[in-house]
Design a protein that fits this description.
Elements (H helix, E strand, L loop, with lengths): L1 H14 L1 H11 L9 H6 L5 H17 L3 H21 L7 H17 L6 H21 L7 H28 L6 H18 L1
Helix pairs in contact: 1-8, 4-5, 4-6, 4-8, 4-9, 5-7, 5-8, 6-7, 6-9
Amino acid sequence: MVYFAIKFWLLFALAFFPLIYPSFAYAHTGMVDQSGWVHGFIHPLGGLDHILTMVAVGLWAAQMAGRAIWLVPFTFVTVMTLGGVVGMIGIPFVGTELGIVISLLVFGMLIAAAIHLPLLISIMVAGMFAFCHGYAHGAEMPHNVSGLAYAAGFILATACLHACGIALTVLSGRMGRVQWLRPAGIVVAFYGGSILFAG
């Protein structure tokens, strides 16, 4: 299952390479890159709330193991993409920022308490918060870039962050050093709580 998850994310990343490669070629001409994939890729990396959530999803999925190790992150990316499209076309959605903050609290606590929910519920939890993150990505898309390439960018960045969380958990498990997972969950939840109370 672990090898399947690794192969899955590798193929997932390769699937978006055709969208990204033209941007590299275009950028090498010295002209301004209007495709948007750079903007999309950087957006999830521009905020600690997004980074911690994406990595936490990978940590939690790998902590649960089984089919959750790839289904939970895949669901997150899929629903996040839907949220991104909704944000791009400007459909109003209330509670985006609150949903992002709560996602930090929830995923942090799930990791800290090593809670293994049923697979269907885990997928629903991931999807619910993924929509909020995706909407934020889409709503903040620059107007002069390609929506398709922008989406490919934030999808790839999110998949990479999920993969980091999965890889860290799997490697730690093989070395018998998974004790750091629960403190890591506490840190994620604490960060979410600090944003909530500060706001």
